[in-house]
Amino acid sequence: MPECPVSKVAGEVAARGAPGLIGAELLKLRTLRSTWWALAATLLTGVGFGLLAGLSHRNAYPGMTPEQRAADDPLFYSLYGLTLAQLALAVFGVFAVGGEFSTGTIRTSLLAVPRRGRLFAAKMTAIAVPACVVSLLTVLTTYAAAQATLGPHAASPDEGRTLRAIAAGWLYLTLICLFAAGLSALMRGTSRALAVLLPLLFLGSQGLGNVPVARTVLQYLPDQAGMVAMHLADEVRDPAFARDYGPDTALVLVVLWTLAALLAGYLTLRRADAE
Amino acid sequence: MCRVIEVRDLTKTYPGGSREAVAGLSFTARPGRVTGFLGPNGAGKTTTLRLLLGLTRPTAGEALIDGCPYARLKEPLRRVGALLESGGAHPGRSARDHLRWLARTHGISAARVAQVLRLAGLAEVADRRVAGFSLGMRQRLGLAAALLGDPPVLLLDEPGNGLDAAGLRSLRETLRKLAAEGRTVLVSSHLMAEMALTADQLVVIARGRLLADASVREFTGAKGPGALEEAFLRLTGGE
User: Fold this and answer.
1) Do the chains contact at A28 and B101, CB–CB below 8 Å?
2) Tell me: the pLDDT tens digits for A252-264?
């Protein structure tokens, strides 16, 4: 490569290299209103449905048969709100990546960072930071809200199963956001990504995985695996939720889905012309 | 090789495209002058600039800046400033924030961001969202972004779009000044008369092929800017 003079006039202050790129991507996220709306919606949806789930169970409890009570699982009501909160967090991932394609900002990004692998890595790292923080906050507050309204029927927080479910919820929400981000790079736009993602996450959580014939395949979809990981698909509570794998395998499945989406998104960005 | 924009036998065929968008195009833009890149709509100007900027990959041939493909330049914003159609800023972000994230990728200071905003005449509206900007304001923001890294090479795609008479004049003066400072300035346009006033060298293309590469003086002879338009229409067959 020839040694051509590079301008030094523009003062150098902030970090360069990878920290500079990640900082730039974080700045992009911070300076869009959609980021704040989607993240706030994640937290509020989780807490709101956590409160409702706890309350409705508390009201239904007196009418339940002894068998139903024996098979019941307070953890289900404690974390059920997360299946809806994940939609808002996935939308955050879609806006963060798909918005660049929809608005043409991707061209400016590629001019500043022409090495597409670096751009992709910086962007995904930057998305992971708020996703990780908001996921933790959402899981904890959703759980706390449901516990408060469950009252006497609350889950025991020091039980290992509860702690594992909470940790799994944290990891699952973070990963589903990155899954959405990777998918948006693959689909190269906000609306196309949402058209794939929302049915996938919404129909799934509405019980598509419980239809007997469809279940053999659909039970392996990311949101279904997420429900197993968070102990929301409990066959003792409801036989329709019977799955062919357990919570640990479920987390591995979600990780694999996320890696696949990220890889597909990266390959698309690397290969395609930026129109 | 330094500060030189070099296009060699460049060809680009889009998948499903009926013909080549760029077909065996070769030309060079040198430092210290404004090179006008002229052609009718659809001639392949934008495609050529995108190939030079590594946004699109060539089917054949090379597009080099400083003897190197854009994608391999280190700190590209300090070497090449580019303005693409419609500016490339997210409408939901303010002008200042758009420049701030760009600056962040290269460790460029906030003072420089403020400086280019003033230079582009956007200091007053810097904290407003780009969604409310006119086309002319977006073009000026694009120019501010191009100048951010104080680059010795500039590639500008139709920078005059959306500018009023005063804006065009100030753009012309800016481009002349940048070239006088020893920079390489490649400007695409479909406005012949404007280019006759701005450029030193003209590269004319149509249907992705080179039609002419000559100085403005060679084009117009002694007849002045009006003759350029005629020469252009004759060359491009009135397209």
Assistant:
1) yes
2) 999 999 999 999 9
Contact of B76 with chain A, judged by CB distance below 8 Å, is answered with: yes
Residue B40 one-letter amino acid: P
Q: Which helix (H) or strand (E) holds A246?
A: none
Contact check, Cβ <8 Å, A13/B2 = no
For chain A, the domain total comes to 1
CA angle B6, B12, B14 (to 5 degrees): 155
Quickly tell me which residue has 């003209």 as its tokens.
B202
Write the CB contacts of A71 (distance below 8 Å, at least 6 apart in sequence).
A236, A237
Domain that holds residue A239: 18-61+74-271
Please name the amino acid found at residue A44. Answer: L
Nearest CA in chain B to A33: B92
pLDDT at res. B229: 72
Burial-class residue B28 by CB neighbours within 10 Å (0-12, 13-18, 19+). middle
CA distance B167 to B174: 10
Q: Is residue A8 part of a domain?
A: no
Contact A231, A79 (CB under 8 A): yes
Q: Is residue A5 part of a domain?
A: no
Class of residue B124 by CB neighbours under 10 A (exposed 0-12, middle 13-18, buried 19+): exposed
pLDDT tens, A150-187? 888 877 766 888 999 999 999 999 999 999 999 999 99
Residue A68: inside a domain: no
Digit-coded pLDDT (tens) for A82-128: 999 999 999 999 999 999 999 999 999 999 999 999 999 999 999 99
Q: Two tokens at A15?
A: 């970090």
Cα separation values, B5 from A26, A147, A184, B31, Å: 33, 66, 34, 9
Helices then strands, counting H and E runs in chain B, come out as 8, 9
In chain B, domain spans: 1-79+152-239, 83-150
CATH superfamily of B1-79+152-239: P-loop containing nucleotide triphosphate hydrolases (3.40.50.300)
SS3 sequence of A134-186: HHHHHHHHHHHHHHHHHHHHCCCCCCHHHHHHHHHHHHHHHHHHHHHHHHHHH
**Interchain pair A10, B90: CB under 8 A:** no
Task: Determine the straight-line distance between the first and last CA of chain B, rounded to whole angstroms.
Answer: 35
The answer to whether the CB atoms of A105 and B54 lie below 8 A apart is: no
